[in-house]
Amino acid sequence: KAGVTQTPRYLIKTRGQQVTLSCSPISGHRSVSWYQQTPGQGLQFLFEYFSETQRNKGNFPGRFSGRQFSNSRSEMNVSTLELGDSALYLCASRLGVNTGELFFGEGSRLTVL
Amino acid sequence: QKEVEQNSGPLSVPEGAIASLNCTYSDRGSQSFFWYRQYSGKSPELIMSIYSNGDKEDGRFTAQLNKASQYVSLLIRDSQPSDSATYLCAGGVKPGGGNKLTFGTGTQLKVEL
Description:
The structure holds 2 protein chains of 2 kinds.
Chain A: E1 5-7, E2 10-13, E3 19-24, E4 31-38, E5 42-50, E6 53-57, E7 64-68, E8 74-78, E9 87-94, E10 103-104, E11 108-112
Parallel strand pairs in A: 2-11
Antiparallel strand pairs in A: 1-3, 3-8, 4-5, 4-9, 5-6, 7-8, 9-10, 9-11
Chain B: E1 4-5, E2 11-14, E3 19-25, E4 32-38, E5 45-50, E6 54-58, E7 61-66, E8 71-76, E9 85-93, E10 100-103, E11 107-112
Parallel strand pairs in B: 2-11
Antiparallel strand pairs in B: 1-3, 3-8, 4-5, 4-9, 6-7, 7-8, 9-10, 9-11
């Protein structure tokens, strides 16, 4: 069974640009969550999608947005990039929003110059 | 105050010893708890989940939950060098929008030969 797949794995952007990251969940998983991981802050929850609807949201500015498609694949977008957005962005899937076990992808490492 | 707190370590133990990793949480509404292992440069991997007070054993791993003290721990018996990683504790609450997980910043474990 294929795991969670994230693309791209690495990317470099400059301040002010925008970026779109993609995530394909484990087959049968309908919930996709996004996390930002930095050395100082650890894993910070961005948002979770289930059945194409945002179900939970973390404390990030509106520059961070996401969506989910009917096949459960998800994208997140960061607009007007700032240096502080440099991080590992992790996508995780689970069967549903009320189940606990999250399964993570390998992440997309974003560097903002 | 962070919702889930862990000592960042590093926690150093000799090979074959028991490693004890601890986590406290502040939200009394937390109902589920998870331990993830994250190797350097890799994504978090679920190793244990626990929902009820008491102990739960899985191989060399034992998770312990004490809801009255708001305390979760992970014991690793017969520690091996391959156990050297960062261990993340996560707690889940259900605010109506599903089981939202909050992660601690992780404890780095080093198992020395």
